Amino acid sequence: MSIESLNERFAIPGALFFQAGPGGMPMAVLTGKGGQAHVMLHGGHVVHFQPAGQSPVLWMSQKSIFQSGKAIRGGVPVCFPWFGASTHVPNAPGHGIARLKEWEFISAHVLADGRVEAVLAMRSDEWTHEFWEPGFVLMLVVTVGATLTMALTATNIDRRPVAITEALHTYFSVFDVRQIRIHGLEGLEYIDTAGGGHKLARQDDQPITIEAETDRDYLNTAATVVIEDPAAGRSITIEKSGSNSTVVWNPWIDKAAKMPDFGDDEWPGMVCVETANISADAVTIKPGKSHVMQAKISVSPRASLTSFASARAF
Q1: The domain containing residue 216 runs over which residues?
Q2: What predicted TM-score, i.e. pTM, was given to this entire model?
Q3: N or C terminus of the chain: which is more exposed, having fewer CB within 10 Å?
Q4: Is 169 an annotated catalytic residue?
């Protein structure tokens, strides 16, 4: 559907319109009470969220590729029906097939509280069956205001139960990843996969700090996570439901340099805190049934490091 046709069918004055996004791809601009978000139809991909009075919350690589069949680097990629490498088909795309497909825009409306809600969908077809046999329908509901809520519903339309892994692979913008503290996962076991490893470890009783390449799969946790970013003067809170895994990732220097769609010097400005169901937390969906995974992102002000230093000086 053309941008003109999308606007004719779905535009809501002051709340929703479509425009050509990066690479000329159709992009929905959602403006709710207290915030704005941009959603690409390619991948059902949220690429921007900005509450009023704040800088953008989501990080996007300046090297990201916006082409059909390519994954977007940054924002909130939808990983489905597998996370990481496929165990089904050799050379299948990493992190699944959902982020490579054009999604269908289904509907949008303004809620009573002034937030804007948009619904997108993706269905299995001949192309998806090349990599994963089961039939499925994905629905993504994006709700925008002062907070951003994303609800991903996976429905099994096959005749057999299917096991999936999935993630809302959210990239957050931070002032300097070396200065942040990530709260909510203290004391939990995780699988450390940095550098291609697979080592079981345990978080101590302190918040996570990033001091090297970090790739950690925290399993069996539904905890709310808070990214404390004092240099940016704010904290980002990620609440979730239907998710039992949280992934924390930053590529650091060497890995960033090896990725063509990731700038060599961009790694200090981002951290991924991903709402997921992976590894032992895989979800089995019975025929005709659905699973819903949801993430809610909010921002609150915090004193900056400069303020802390001033307070100590006095």
Answers
A1: 3-313
A2: 0.94
A3: C
A4: yes
